[in-house]
Amino acid sequence: MFGFMFIFFAKIIEVSLTTVRTVLITRGEKLYGSIIGFFEVIIWLYVIGTMLDGINEAPFKMVTYALGFACGNYIGCILEEKLALGLMTLNVIVSVKDGKTLAELIRAENVGVTIVDAEGLKEEKKMLILHVKRKRKSQMLKLIQNSGINAVISLVDTKTIYGGYGIRK
Fold it and tell me: CA-based angle 137:109:160, to the nearest 5?
């Protein structure tokens, strides 16, 4: 029974590390991604060796391994979401009359905002472009929603930003 539990929990840890490593590497954090990859492979080798040993007598090990893999993906996604590594760009489209007001609210939170003239179907608009750390995403969305200003918001993951206000890499 201990062997099955070991396979299950070790696989969860290994796959969770895989998720975090992948995110780090895609966000340009090669060193941290490589360090995590080192430990990930050590765990994988040990788990696969344990799993394959006596698999003909205990085929349930395959199910345990697969369940650990599935749970590891789920937990890895939650972990990555909590870590909120990296940057994102928010594009906020509002009416011309609300553009300046919303920009001032956002700037009061020490976030740089670029205002661009835009054109909607029926009227002129303003597009506010914000670059923020992903950890501040909820804060910014809440600020915009609580402002009472009607806005269309799109979020984009951003790999790198050079220069600007309010973000240091």
Answer: 50
